[in-house]
Write a structure and sequence with these properties.
The structure holds two protein chains of two kinds. The N and C termini of chain A lie far apart (54 Å). By secondary structure, chain A is α+β, with helices and mostly antiparallel strands. In chain A, a hairpin with a 2-residue loop joins strand 4 and strand 5. Chain B is of the alpha/beta class. Chain B folds into two domains: 291 residues, Rossmann fold, CATH 3.40.50.11740; 44 residues, no CATH class. Helix content of chain B is 40%, strand content 17%. In chain B, strand 8, helix 13 and strand 9 form a beta-alpha-beta unit. In chain B, helix 2 runs parallel beside helix 13. Chain B is globular. Classes of the chains: A alpha+beta, B alpha/beta. Chains A and B meet through strand 1, strand 4, strand 5 and helix 1 of A and helix 1, helix 2, helix 3, helix 8 and helix 9 of B.
């Protein structure tokens, strides 16, 4: 059961407890498995616990890499056309 | 990018249709000329099984890359004897059994938790281990047992509950630990000569906890490419591309496609909590059989929170369901349509085996999505 959802931490009530919004519903989340997290951070929630903080920079980098990999053919063709 | 409270950007970004089509075209190029089934890849995690079906990737994938579903469904690999134990507790009037929802309908040797509830047993579905603790607080005159199922993603949440129960001196709460760990199972599969795997799509969220370096022994011992992959369509495509690239180049490495969530060392705090409460034990996996060190047993120091130690119970005689071929499905040796019971006798409404019950079971996934695949 690898089900975990990425959500934004809405409120941090204590080091151990926070809330997030999902599908319009406010839900509790235990923060016991994270060392440092702040309101507004994006977290992965599994079975009522935040298991990790999501890395925004890595997410952006992954997307950039995917874009490059996906359009590589187009870029190659374009370079070949310009060359001729 | 505008901030949004629900984190959809972490999902929407990775569902972009243009990028998906581009990645897929690249994958087709990489595999052109490669013979069918030349690159068998195992997707271990049940969530991946479903995601690969639902995204359409399983159906569209060039035949050179053959996807085999593995035993990464903790519900499916829990053997009958443990389900029977949970039911035995539930049948005792002074007990309340709390469990995650997807264990309710799994058939044990004689019945299921859901059917037991139907004839009066007190079985309650919880979404989080914190709910199980609350049940114990609210019912001081009852013994509350939590049925602990799950891999390393879930085990730390159970450890946290055990530690909290002790801190509060909550004396009517204990856990049946049916937890298992993934790397040990991967080793058993990597070494299996019948499978001839060329790579593992490693579970994304288990890896959030254990870290990417947990797979180094598998790479080194078996020369097996391991790519930790996320669950959105673009993640799946990129993960498969990374594995194919390694297989074609004859290289074997651990790589993390899911870098926005997975680090090399994993979640240290969660691992420490897990190791504080649990220790490795030998464990029986439905299908694979016993794998040394692949289970998590509650440590002696926490014996009062270990249901089997504190409140021993005798389950009914264990027997397997005849005709059910879950064992072979879980090992990736057959596909569900090859089981004589599939769809004819065994369906989500009337499941014979665990693989059909779990929302992430291979048989359930094939039942729901697999019509187009039958040759």
């Amino acid at each position: 059961m690898c089900l975990a959802v990425p959500v934004r931490l809405k409120e941090k009530k204590s080091d151990a407890l926070g809330t997030f919004e999902y599908g319009g519903v406010l839900k509790d989340v235990s923060l016991q498995l994270l060392s440092e997290v702040n309101e507004g951070d994006y977290i992965l929630v599994h079975a009522g616990f935040a298991i990790e903080k999501l890395d925004e920079a890595e997410a952006e980098e992954t997307l950039v890499l995917m874009r490059e990999m996906a359009f590589l053919k187009a870029a190659d063709e374009q370079a070949a056309e310009e060359h001729n | 990018m505008a901030a949004d409270s629900s984190g959809m950007r972490y999902t929407k970004w990775f569902r972009d249709g243009d990028i998906a089509r581009g990645l897929f075209a690249r994958l087709e190029e990489m595999l052109s000329g490669v013979p069918a089934a030349a690159i068998p890849l195992m997707e271990v995690c049940g969530t991946h099984t479903v995601a690969l079906f639902r995204s359409g990737i399983r159906r569209a994938l060039p035949k050179a890359a053959r996807l085999i579903s593995g035993p990464g469904c903790p519900v499916c690999v829990t053997p009958n004897v443990l389900i029977d134990k949970a039911i035995a507790y539930a049948n005792e009037p002074e007990f309340i059994v709390t469990t995650f929802g997807d264990m309710m309908r799994v058939p044990g040797s004689e019945t299921s938790l859901e059917k037991a509830r139907g004839v009066g047993a007190d079985v309650r579905i919880v979404y989080s281990t914190m709910d199980a603790l609350e049940t114990a607080r609210e019912n001081p005159d009852k013994k509350v047992v939590f049925f602990g199922i799950g891999f390393e993603t879930t085990a730390p949440t159970v450890a946290a509950a055990i530690i909290q129960a002790r801190a509060e001196k909550l004396n009517n709460f204990a856990v049946v630990s049916a937890h298992k760990t993934v790397p040990a199972a991967l080793e058993a599969l990597a070494g299996n000569p019948e499978l001839k795997l060329k790579g593992f799509i490693c579970p994304g969220h288990v890896s959030v906890i254990i870290g990417s370096r947990a797979y180094l022994p598998i790479v080194e011992t078996y020369n097996m490419p391991c790519v930790i992959t996320g669950f959105e369509p673009l993640d799946l495509l990129q993960g498969i591309m990374m594995l194919v690239e390694q297989a074609l180049a004859g290289r074997a490495e651990v790589r993390s496609q899911y870098s926005r969530a997975v680090s090399e060392e994993g979640n240290r705090k969660a691992l420490d909590l897990m190791n504080k409460v649990f220790e490795p034990s030998d464990s029986i996996w439905r299908g694979i059989g016993p794998i040394p060190g692949s289970g998590l047993a509650i440590r002696e120091e926490y014996a009062d929170l270990d249901a089997e130690a504190r409140w021993p119970v005798a389950p009914c005689a264990t027997r397997e369901n005849p005709g059910c071929r879950c064992a072979e499905v879980l090992m990736g040796l057959i596909e569900p349509p090859q089981c004589a019971l599939f769809k004819k006798v065994c369906t989500p409404e009337a499941p014979v085996g665990a693989c059909m019950v779990s929302s992430e079971g291979t048989c359930a996934a094939y039942f729901k999505y697999g019509d187009e695949l039958i040759d």
